[in-house]
Amino acid sequence: MCWLRIYFLCLVVTFCILFGVSHSTSDSICVLSDAPQQCGAFCLAALHPLYDQYSKSRQQEHSQEAMVKMIEDFRTEQKKIVNSEEAILKIIADSRAEQKELVNDSQEAMVKIIAESQAEQKEAMVKMIEDFRTEQKELLNHYYLDVRELLNELAANLTSTARRDESTLQSMPVTVPPGFQKIGSKYFLIEDNEWKTWTGAEETCREKGSHLATFRNEDEFEAVARRVHNETIFWLGYRRNSKGEMVRAAGKEESFMMRRLGELNQNGYNENVILYNLSIYYTNYKFALPFICQLDTVQER
Ligand SMILES: *[C@@H]1O[C@H](CO)[C@@H](O)[C@H](O)[C@H]1NC(C)=O
Ligand SMILES: *[C@@H]1O[C@H](CO)[C@@H](O)[C@H](O)[C@H]1NC(C)=O
Ligand SMILES: *[C@@H]1O[C@H](CO)[C@@H](O)[C@H](O)[C@H]1NC(C)=O
Ligand SMILES: *[C@@H]1O[C@H](CO)[C@@H](O)[C@H](O)[C@H]1NC(C)=O
Which residues form the signal peptide (predicted)? Predict the structure, then answer.
């Protein structure tokens, strides 16, 4: 570019010199009185627009360059801005990821804590229930023991009360129906004036609140048998029931006499039992005989 400019300038100078010379030779319009001066002025005048153009273009070039530089700067700036935006975006993304992680971590921690606390609570609950059950069991055991103790005490008290009642009964004055006398521990009525059949005799005893006599043991039997006349026959309170079994008129069985009657039972069809000559015998008598009643209970006065 520079070489081109220099070349162009030389061309112009050469042209001026030549142009000035020709004018002077032909002696026409242009006569140079002071050739170098005039040519120089001309040249300058001729070159001026060119120079202007040149400086303009130079200015333009400068401004273009400035523009380009500006643009470049702008681009760089923009690039920088873009870069910083990216950086910001990255920071935001990073912070988001971090936040997410934090949230995740805290969530996980929370979930863990909740799970642990739930497990703990459950354990505590299970323990509480177990403790409660154990306690209840113990309480129940204690309760049962207490109840058992109480029942034992009550039973003991009842037994002692019953014993006391019995002794009280025996020592207390009692109301005994007329004609009954105490033989051993029981009251008996020996009836040998008004004779009855077995059924009639039992009926008469019942009217007096008693039954035909039976005996709980040998002593009782002996005591009564010795009290009556040994040659008189008395009805006793035994009979054969519909099944063929000997039973007491009063209902309850007494093993002593039942055994003794069993030993005597040679005639299966005999229906009743009598007392005669200090012994007992089976009989089928249908006629009236003396009889002995016994009181089952004695009423307190
Ligand atoms: C949380 O983190 C766990 C592992 O640490 C991962 O398996 C899970 O996908 C993450 N959850 C979220 C929502 O990022
Ligand atoms: C048993 O008798 C004793 C003494 O009489 C009394 O203190 C106690 O309360 C009685 N027990 C019961 C269970 O009735
Ligand atoms: C009754 O007893 C008397 C005197 O002990 C006796 O002589 C008599 O023979 C007895 N009667 C009978 C039936 O055994
Ligand atoms: C009365 O009993 C006695 C002895 O228990 C006896 O020796 C006597 O023979 C009996 N009398 C009659 C009549 O069965």
Answer: 1-24
210's tokens: 């008693």
State pLDDT tens for residues 210-256: 999 998 888 999 999 999 999 999 999 988 877 777 788 777 666 66
Q: Give CATH superfamily name and number for 177-300.
A: Mannose-Binding Protein A, subunit A (3.10.100.10)
Give the residue extent of every domain in the chain.
2-81, 177-300
- Residue linked to tokens 């009360």: 161
Residue 210 exposed, middle or buried by CB count within 10 Å (0-12, 13-18, 19+): buried
Residue 272: exposed, middle, or buried by beta-carbon count in 10 A (0-12, 13-18, 19+)?
buried
Residues 7, 98: Cα–Cα separation, whole Å: 70
How far apart are alpha carbons 86 and 89 in whole angstroms?
5
Contact 176, 187 (CB under 8 A): yes
Residue 229 CA: nearest ligand 3 atom is 1
**Among 230, 227, 125, 233, which residue's Cα sits nearest to residue 183?**
227
| Statement: residue 91 has pLDDT above 60 | yes
Q: Above 60 in pLDDT, residue 185?
A: yes
- How much distance in Å is there from the Cα of 277 to the middle of ligand 3? 7
Is the CB of 278 within 6 Å of ligand 4? yes
Spatial contact of 43 and 16, defined as CB atoms under 8 Å apart: yes
H or E stretch covering 84? helix 35-171
Q: Is 277 a pocket residue for ligand 4 (Cβ < 6 Å)?
A: yes
Q: Whose CA is nearest to atom 4 of ligand 2?
A: 157
37-41, 76-80, 214-218: least confidently modelled range? 37-41
For the CA of 153, the nearest atom of ligand 2: 13
User: What is the C-alpha separation between 231 and 275, in angstroms, rounded?
Assistant: 10
